[in-house]
């Protein structure tokens, strides 16, 4: 992906110099436990407290000594900022052309180890997520290493797909879809709630496909092999694949994000179509 030297978004809130974001984990999930949470609950997309509790898995407030960012940290921050800027340009155009309405961009919060969100605690264990309460995406870029080394989804476009997927949840929020879906989830059984969650996540995958299409055709920043990296990432984070990799037998009633085949398929639908109307995962029986 061509990203170096390109326009960066002004909607980035960088908390990484705050160390642990003013929070430290005590008696919570860490080490191997954190990895298991990331693998089994990857891309929760809405509220990490559903997994780790409202305190983010045992976080308590501390002074959080300032830290210096490494050259790699700086590069990752610029990369995320460029990808976010691309999503803003693309969704502004899509909202205008397909909906006739303005697009209000999200804020992306960069942090190290732990921070707070309006949806509860955020930590490296939660993975990237979108909080509709404050309209912010939360991301510890250390997750990119997990994506590459533990989940087998390397490449800068795979990392960009992570950002685009979370912005897809923001698009859902702007359209009123996310709030309606989550309201219904609170009124049904756990299995039914999980099924709705799958549709939410697959739609976000489809929306990220629209982003990838526009990045290639309109912005011209997609290089050879990039799209394959995104499709591979979608496959590697399917619920069935993640559960197998965690040594478990896939249990469809527990799926919250969709299978590898479903995730890659809906990304491709968005990529090939480019139309919001074709990303309606809520009115189809063919997921």
Q: Which blocks of ≥5 consecutive residues have pLDDT under 50? A: 21-63
Taking strands numbered 1, 2, ... along the chain, how are they ordered across the largest sheet?
Answer: 1-4-8-7
Helix content: 40-55%
> Helix-strand pattern, N to C?
EEHHEHEEEEEHHHHHHH
Q: What is the radius of gyration?
A: 18 Å
Average predicted confidence as pLDDT: 85
> Distance between the terminal alpha carbons, to the nearest Å?
29 Å
Structural class: alpha/beta
Number of strands: 8
Strand content: 5-15%
Q: What's the number of helices?
A: 10
User: What is the approximate shape?
Assistant: globular
* Major beta-sheet overview: 4 strands, mixed
What is the number of independent domains?
Answer: 1
